[in-house]
Specification:
Shape: globular
Helix content: 55-70%
Largest sheet: 3 strands, mixed
Order of helices and strands: HHEEEHHHHH
Number of strands: 3
Strand content: 5-15%
Length: about 170
């Protein structure tokens, strides 16, 4: 076998390995969605109808309000944390956080990218409030409204996200 043929063979094996790895990840996500559906049919149903993208980046997970992106770090988590993270991202979609941010971002007077970061913190706490009632992560410490209340020195519990955002952006 020539050096060129060996190189093509190695590339072909790597491509097949990557495809199989992707299929294994896809199958693992499907199993997670089944497990989530048994505990919370609403979130499970939403996940079944959501496009889930397996990203090559190291990011854990994220959503653009339409799709959920799972990075390689997601698959290194314990199963309980994977369920929590997937349910958390689905909660962002269900609560329409991306759309709602577009409606309020101009009201924030903080410098630079702090407005987006503030909104993300508040949105994470709102999503976790719902998800923590149904799922218990193994090693992740979810951000809660109570944690943010202590950090900002303002009452957030019982308020809408937009109201909490407006007040926190002023403080």
């Amino acid at each position: 076998m020539s050096e060129e043929e060996a190189s093509r063979l190695i590339e072909g094996i790597a491509e097949i390995s990557e495809r199989v790895s992707g299929l294994d990840k896809r199958r693992a996500v499907e199993e997670l969605i089944e497990s989530i559906s048994r505990r919370d049919p609403l979130i499970g149903g939403l996940l079944r109808r959501t496009t889930i993208v397996l990203a090559d980046a190291g990011e854990l997970a994220g959503t653009d309000g339409i799709r959920i992106y799972l990075g390689v770090a997601f698959f290194a988590l314990p199963r309980e944390d994977q369920e929590f993270v997937l349910a958390h991202e689905a909660a962002h979609i269900a609560l329409m956080h991306s759309t709602r941010y577009e409606r309020v971002r101009h009201k924030c007077k903080l410098p630079g990218g702090l407005c987006g970061e503030l909104y993300d913190l508040l949105a994470d706490a709102e999503a976790n409030k719902y998800v923590c009632e149904r799922f218990e992560p193994a090693s992740i410490v979810p951000l809660t409204p109570k944690m943010l209340e202590e950090a900002f020195g303002t009452r957030l519990e019982g308020r809408g996200l937009e109201e909490a955002y407006a007040e926190a952006a002023r403080s």
